[in-house]
Each structure stands twice: as C-alpha cells, then as structure tokens.
Design brief:
By secondary structure, this protein is of the alpha/beta class. It has one domain (10-124, 151-328): Roll (2,3-Dihydroxybiphenyl 1,2-Dioxygenase, domain 1), CATH 3.10.180. It has 7 helices and 17 strands. It has helices at 23-33, 79-91, 165-176, 227-239, 294-298, 307-310, 321-328; strands spanning 10-20, 37-42, 45-49, 59-63, 68-76, 96-99, 108-112, 118-122, 154-162, 179-186, 189-196, 204-208, 216-223, 243-250, 257-262, 268-272, 287-290. It has a 9-stranded mixed beta sheet with strand order 14-15-16-13-9-12-11-10-17. An 8-stranded mixed beta sheet has the order 2-3-4-1-5-8-7-6, with helices on one face. The longest helix has 13 residues, at 79-91.
C-alpha cells in the first residue's frame, strides 16, 4: 500500500440510511433484537443509535417501496479535510453538491461512487448526550447498555455491491485516502476489495455483483466485540424467525467474526463479533486472495456462505429474497448466473 496524501482525512463511517418496505418491522428488528435506541422520528423516517455510537444516530430507517440503502456518510477528521476532499472530487470532475445536514449533522457534501452508491461526507456532528436515566458510569460509553435483546455497541462497517469493483476501490483510494487492505481476484478481475480509513481491518468493502447489477448494498455491519454474542444472537433469531444466511464463524479476510441475517425489510445485516485484524504496520502491503482460496477467505471454521445469496443478492433487488433464492438455488462456483431481471440496474435509487 503506497503513501497517500489523503490518508487519515476520513475518520470513520458515521451513519447509514436503510430503506425498507416494512419500516415498523425493520425498526422492531433493530430495537427489540439489537437493542438500539430511537433518538428521533421525522416524517417516514426513524433515527437510531447503538449504546456506544458517539453521535445522535448511526442508522436511519426510511419507508420505501424497496429495500436498499439511500446513502452512507463518512466523517472527516476536520473541516479543512472536508474541504480538501471536495477539491479532490472537483479536480476529477466528479458531480457533487453541498446540502444542509440531516438531524444531528452539519453541512454535507454528497456525490456518487462510479457504480452509483450515494456517499455523504460530513465534519460537523452533534455528540449524543444521554438523559440522566441513560447516563453510564463507564465514562467512555455515551449511554447505558440496554436491557433488551442482545445490544450492539455501534455501527462497524459497510459492504457495497458493484458491477465493477476496481473503479469503486480506486475512487475510495484517490478521493478519500482509503487503503485497500485485502482483495480477492479471479484471474485479472477483482472480485472484492476491503478498505480502511483508519486502523480497523475495514470500514468499507466492495464486492462484485455476479448478476451484473449496479449501486447495491451487500450489508451493513454492527459491532458486538464478543463472539459469544453472535452465538446468542443466532439462537435468538432462530426462536423469533429471523432468517439467518450464514454463521457464526470467522472470516479469513479481515479475521472478523460474523453472523449474517436478513432483517424483515429485506436488507442483509452482519453482526461483527470482533474488530478483526488491526492494521498497525504503516507500510503494510495489500494482501491478495485468489478465488481458489475463497472458502478460507470467507470462513475459517468451514461455514458455507451460500452462493445463491451471498454473491448475487443485494438491495435494492429486482426480486424479493425468497424469489431470488428460488431463481439462484442452483448457482455455484464456475457457473454463469441466471439471466438478470430487466430492473437489475437500480443505481442511486432512493425513497
């Protein structure tokens, strides 16, 4: 990984807005099962945070005809860093716009990745201050740990799906100073890239959509910091009919402990049991995995991530999850996926 003058201009992933055709059920999933707090309601949207999220919200759920992601936002290290990121986009003639901030955030720079994902950059962020009854005695914890479900601590990372991984990866490297820590290749084609703006194993990843779709969300991840919580959550989801895709197990890529589920609105959510590998070496090189080793890269413990969903299903999807699984049930390594539906290209869709 070569030296990048924009390195560390981005502090971290601050928030994600999910779209859901079943907003109340999606809200119940995050509050009842994952213990997130509701901090605000506006129109068709609800704002939530984990008990160690520093800001007013890290997750916004908005009612929409289709599941998907409206946008995600990265917080810069300073106001000056935000202006420098705008200049980088301007120099490359990337369409962008300044907008007023959403609840709890200041002015926002918005643009799209080369594949059509909506990106926001912010500096001004209102810190969450708990009311007396929610104030924690642990000073680094903005609020008490909830007594409901198996509570997540904070938002952790985001995984995008793209028709072509390389331009998306290069955009994050050039304009946001991300370093690509690990990647997967199949011959000369990049199948996936895991990128970090700090010392974490990754904060944004991008995987090739094998259906050829553009601008989709693969998953948003929330952090437990404890593998046992993933095990307990799996039992909870089984009992309450939340669809589990794979896990618990440990990825070879990033070394993070995972559990993948689908929330009722149709979006994939990952529960992250550990932070994974920490990138303390300042001149470490990008680690390249070959598709021949993908089983170890995906799951050290042998869990099978299903090809009929993991490499083909993202939101928004032209098919409901059950219909997608039925269509792709026979898809596997070395096979061409079924012909895409005519509405595959849904880049930049929003509520």
């Amino acid at each position: 990984m070569s030296e990048n003058p924009a390195r560390f201009e981005i502090a971290h992933l601050a928030r994600v807005e999910l779209l859901s055709p079943k907003p109340q059920e999606t809200e119940d999933f995050f509050t009842r099962f994952l213990g997130m707090y509701v901090t605000q309601r506006e129109g068709q949207s609800v704002y939530l945070r984990g008990y160690e999220d520093p800001y007013q919200w890290s997750l916004k759920i908005t009612e929409s005809p289709q599941a998907g992601m409206d946008h995600f936002a990265m917080r810069t290290h300073s106001a000056e860093a935000l202006d420098r990121r705008e200049k980088s986009l301007n120099d490359a003639n990337v369409d962008r716009a300044w907008q007023d901030g959403d609840f709890g955030y200041g002015k926002t720079l918005k643009y799209q990745t080369p594949d059509g994902h909506n990106v926001s950059l912010v500096w001004e962020a209102e810190k969450y201050v708990a009311p007396p009854e929610l104030q924690s005695k642990i000073l680094t914890r903005p609020s008490k740990k909830p007594l409901q479900g198996i509570p997540v601590k904070r938002i952790d990372h985001l995984n995008l799906m793209a028709s072509d991984v390389t331009p998306v990866k290069e955009s994050f490297e050039r304009h946001l100073g991300f370093q690509t820590t690990e990647r997967v290749v199949d011959g000369d084609v990049e199948i996936g890239a895991w990128m970090s703006s700090n010392l974490l194993a990754h904060e944004v990843a991008c995987m090739r959509d094998l259906t050829g779709g553009r601008g989709k969300l693969h998953h948003v991840a929330f952090y437990y910091g404890n593998l046992q919580h993933n095990v307990d959550a799996a039992e909870m989801f089984r009992d309450y009919d939340i669809q589990i895709e794979a896990g618990p197990d440990t990825h070879g890529i990033t070394q993070g402990q995972f559990l993948y589920v689908f929330e009722p609105g149709g979006n994939r959510v990952e529960l992250f049991g550990s932070a994974g590998f920490m990138h303390l070496d300042p001149d470490a090189t990008t680690k390249t995995w070959d598709m021949a080793d993908i089983d170890t890269g995906l799951a050290i413990g042998g869990a099978k991530l299903p090809w009929e969903t993991y490499f083909t299903y993202g939101t928004p999807s032209p098919l409901a999850l059950d219909a997608h699984i039925e269509k792709f049930v026979h898809f596997g390594p070395g096979m061409a996926p079924p012909e895409p539906s005519p509405q595959t290209d849904l880049a930049g869709s929003s509520a």
